[in-house]
Amino acid sequence: MTPPVLEVVGLRVEVEGRGDDIVDDISFAIGAGEVLGLVGESGSGKSTVGLALLGHTRRGARITGGEVRVEGRDILGLSPAGLRGLRGKTVSYVPQDPASALNPALRIRTQLEEVLETHAFGDSRAARAARMREMLEEVLLPSDDGFLRRYPHQLSGGQQQRVGLAMAFACRPRVIVLDEPTTGLDVTTQAHVLSTVRDLCSAHGVAALYVSHDLAVVATLADRVAVMYAGRIVENGPERVLFRAAAHPYTRRLVEAIPEMSGRHALEGIAGTAPRPGQRADGCFFAPRCTYAVEACTIELPPLEQSGEGHFVRCVRHAEISALGVSERRPAPELPEPDTATTLVSVRGLDAWHGDRQFLFGIDLSVLPRQCVALVGESGSGKTTLARCIAGLHRDFKGELALYGKPLAAGARARSRDDRRRLQYIFQSPYSSLNPRKTIAQIVSQPLGLFFDLDHRETHERVVATLERVRLNPSAMTRYPHELSGGERQRVAIARALAAEPTLLVCDEITSALDVSVQAAIIDLIAELQREMKLGLLFVTHNLALIRTIAEEVAVMNAGRIVERGKVEDVLASPQDAYTKALLADTPSMELALAAGA
Fold first, then answer.
1. What is the mean pLDDT of residues 205-209?
2. Percent of the chain, pLDDT > 70?
3. How far apart are CA 401 and CA 383, in angstroms?
4. What is the pLDDT of residues 304-340, one digit of tens each?
5. Is the pLDDT confidence value at 100 over 80?
6. Among 200, 222, 202, residue whose Cα is nearest residue 210
């Protein structure tokens, strides 16, 4: 057999000065042209492992054990100068955020040339220029002088990520680490980037580690998958075997949290959170969240045992769990019946501008009480601009906008207090939408002070009730946003919106920055709140699979226009517009990936 390009054996990374392990006992191998998907929730140690393949750790961590062999050579024994020569030439890295990875002050040409010159690739300037144009063509970008003269801010997110890929593949590396490189991209751009990664790895025999929390993406790209939980690999095997017949309870729960295009089953989140370094008890770290746990699970950490050919699992009950077959999943709940007697929000003939450029053209849209309307499309299609116009956060528009038939002013400041209370907005990023200097109690009580006349005791009681409604313990009231996980922060953002007792919630990509298991829990929460509080929802997303479980109607946007609208099941089952068809074709789907490999 051909030896693997990359071998990781017993890797251990610790918190510096404390000795607590961040990751430990990490072992895997990747062959030439093979893609290994490394998946797990935030904090599981995925990115720590990815960086260790370059002999690097984030500040406050250090590699204390194990080997990382590239073509038989242990790179962890190299000097700092040796590691600098290795990075970018033998082992390359593609980060999650291309905008922060590229130098905003340098033109694209300069940044590409810098990579080649640093590693002395090519024996002349002409040779490097030829390689630069070749690598741009490999990632399907223009190689003309006009493009090369641009700065990063003059490129789209997808173009920035392709430049990052071009830089990573520039010196023909043997190993490439891709750290969630498509997280911030819409499905069409994501599909093109994934196709580029797959083609380049196959064409040049590169061993790739693809770090992601999106299992649907991994299912379409990876040959094998390693699942991480609390710093350990708990399951490792061929992609189709692992997703069809997962033998670890955690992997099974992750699969159940993936949105389906069919929408037959409810999304199932995972209660609780993974233990952090220094807080991991004896036994299986997943045991406190596991429905299969027995006493033996709490005594010692199980070793990785073989469950099948090339399939390894860290679970004392893996044989029983494998024999159970596919779990019976809870069917998707019925969506609430909209109130057709009246219209909650109506938009007629809306045109909107950013400066002198028009972004929306003749938009007609309506949301009924108790109805969820999904707004989908690529980045730049106008989804968020339309949502912000309705919420009063964007004022430069013309057309009719009404709430319960009463005209709405163009900006929130010009609206009545009651109109502002009725329309509440939940932003995309839970990390930037909360004030880091305020406690959770102060954040959630702010709308209460704006819209209601309550005394201190009543305010406290309302905050407690609202936090409990979004399934947060009231003990979180005294904490600050940085002390919460991403899912907990988003629940606080939802609680802040609910405190105003709205009639319409505008949800702007509220799960795009979250793990698949946290996303499932948030979607389940929003759907439950809609039923309980009889809310109208405008749900903005680029994830078509996600809308099957929550939305009754969908409006597809492209270039500032609604190109298709109808019942979700009708549009997804039988799209009429060419753009909708292309969007569906580009959406990663676990079901389609498994069907293709059947």
1. 94
2. 97
3. 16
4. 999 888 999 999 999 888 887 666 677 777 788 888 8
5. no
6. 222
CA 314 – CA 236 distance, rounded (Å): 9
Structure tokens at 279: 């807080």
497-511: pLDDT as tens digits? 999 999 999 999 888
Residue 598 has pLDDT above 60, yes or no: no
Measured distance CA(27)–CA(68) in Å, rounded: 9
Smallest CA-to-CA distance from 65 within 134, 107, 19 is with 19
pLDDT digits (tens, 9 = 90+) for 82-93: 999 899 889 999
Greater pLDDT, 487 or 563? 563
Q: Is 277 helix (H, G, I), strand (E, B) or coil?
A: coil
The answer to whether 372 and 550 have CB atoms below 8 angstroms apart is yes
Helix, strand or coil, per DSSP, at residue 284: coil
Of 433, 425, 403, 428, residue with least CA distance to 506: 425
Instruction: Say how far apart CA 590 and CA 85 lie, in whole Å.
Output: 39
Question: For the CA atoms of the chain, what is the radius of gyration?
Answer: 25
Where do we find the tokens 């895997």?
Answer: 28
Please state the separation of Cα 345 from the chain's center in Å: 30
pLDDT at 37: 94
Q: State the Cα angle at 524 between 347 and 221, rounded to 5°.
A: 95
DSSP string, 117-164: HHTT-SSSHHHHHHHHHHHHHHTT---SHHHHT--GGGS-HHHHHHHH
Output the six-digit token pair for 545: 């699979």
Q: Which residues contact 43 (CB under 8 A, 6 or more apart)?
A: 230, 274, 276, 485
Q: In what order do the strands lie in the sheet with 536-541?
A: 423-426, 504-508, 536-541, 372-376, 553-558, 561-567
Q: Is 106 exposed, middle or buried (0-12, 13-18, 19+ CB in 10 A)?
A: middle
Measured distance CA(452)–CA(521) in Å, rounded: 30
Of 76-85, 321-330, 390-399, 456-465, the least confident: 321-330
Six token digits for residue 41: 């929730």
Edge-to-edge strand order for the sheet containing 224-229?
A: 91-94, 175-179, 207-212, 35-39, 224-229, 232-238, 311-313, 305-308
Please give the model's pTM, rounded to 2 decimal places.
Answer: 0.84
- Quickly list H helices, 423-509: 440-451, 456-469, 486-498
Beta strands in 450-558, from DSSP E residues, in sequence order = 504-508, 536-541, 553-558
Distance CA 516, CA 250 (A): 12
Give me the pLDDT at residue 326, please.
63
- Spatial separation of the C-alpha atoms in residues 77 and 243, rounded to whole Å: 36
Cα separation, 38 vs 46, in Å, equals 6
Determine contact, residues 167/119, Cβ cutoff 8 Å.
no
pLDDT, tens digit (0-9, with 9 covering 90-100), for 520-571: 888 888 888 888 888 999 999 888 888 888 899 999 999 999 999 999 999 9
Return d(Cα 526, Cα 490) in angstroms, integer. Answer: 11
